[in-house]
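Supplementary Methods, section 5.1.

A reviewer requested that the exact input to the structure prediction be made available. We therefore reproduce it here, unchanged from the version used in the analyses.
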Amino acid sequence: MAEKKTTKKAAAPKAEEPKKATVKKAAAPKKAAEKKAFVVNAENAGFKAGDVYQALAAAEKALTVKEIAKAAKISEEETLLGLGWLFKEGKLATADEKITLA
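The structure derived from this sequence is encoded token-by-token as follows.
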């Protein structure tokens, strides 16, 4: 038996689609960590003083401003606001650049 040759018909050439221009998007500029603005008033200062007092009481030792801010989970500016309140009330003492309860 003779083998039959199968021939493939050449596919009709497809019309070339116009190439789409690739546009590279510029990377979005990274935003600096947004700082929360806090309101300075008597009520807020009192709450921050409470946060600072609780952090110092829990630590039971003298802490720096950064350590207090970290322990109280508030910013350094808010920590300073609370410290001012507590210093005015005479509840704090300083020793070697650290702050402790009086």
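Strands lie at 92-95, 98-101. These observations are discussed further in the main text.
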